[in-house]
Design goal:
Structural class: mainly alpha
Shape: elongated
Helix content: over 70%
Order of helices and strands: HHHHHH
Distance between the termini: 22 Å
Radius of gyration: 20 Å
């Protein structure tokens, strides 16, 4: 059961990291967009990145799966520390950084699109959104690395020849 949860957790964290890395990779090109084009992009391209779309549930599922994995590994101190470290990074990325940096910018751009005009400080909102996702990507990357290390830390010990032999005899 532990291997299954480790696989689920690292897969969900990898998918989450994929979304934040996509934002970081787009950032240099988006810095050259006009305000009108940037607003159109924000309100069309990313319309399906949050709930009720599946991508809106991947990150919370990643957080929950890593927290559950920490409970399963509580008897293994090294693995527990690595898994808790990953959980802390994920909890900083979402909800802390997301609701501190990204969500307010999302709201500003959404209301600007409905009003049909850019806010006068749209460039600062753009930087807030982009830097928020860059911070989130770094946190997701660290969480992924910690989880990968936890997989090799000995929480699940491989079967030795002796154990296989003893199981075969019983």
């Amino acid at each position: 059961m532990l291997r299954v949860w480790q696989t689920i957790a690292i897969t969900l964290v990898a998918l989450t990291m994929g979304t934040s890395s996509a934002h970081v990779l787009e950032w240099p090109a988006k810095l050259h967009y006009t305000g009108e084009f940037y607003l159109r992009l924000q309100t069309s391209l990313y319309a399906y990145w949050g709930p009720p779309s599946i991508t809106g549930f991947v990150e919370p599922a990643a957080v929950l799966s890593v927290l559950f994995l920490a409970v399963l590994c509580r008897a293994h101190p090294v693995t527990l520390r690595l898994t808790v470290g990953a959980a802390i990074c994920l909890l900083l990325a979402f909800p802390v950084v997301f609701f501190w940096r990204v969500a307010p910018a999302n709201g500003t751009f959404f209301h600007a699109a409905r009003a049909g005009m850019l806010p006068p400080d749209w460039d600062s909102w753009r930087m807030r959104w982009e830097t928020g996702h860059a911070i989130r990507f770094l946190l997701h990357l660290i969480a992924f690395a910690l989880l990968a290390l936890s997989l090799t830390s000995g929480c699940v010990r491989p079967l030795t020849r002796e154990k296989v032999f003893n199981r075969a005899r019983t």
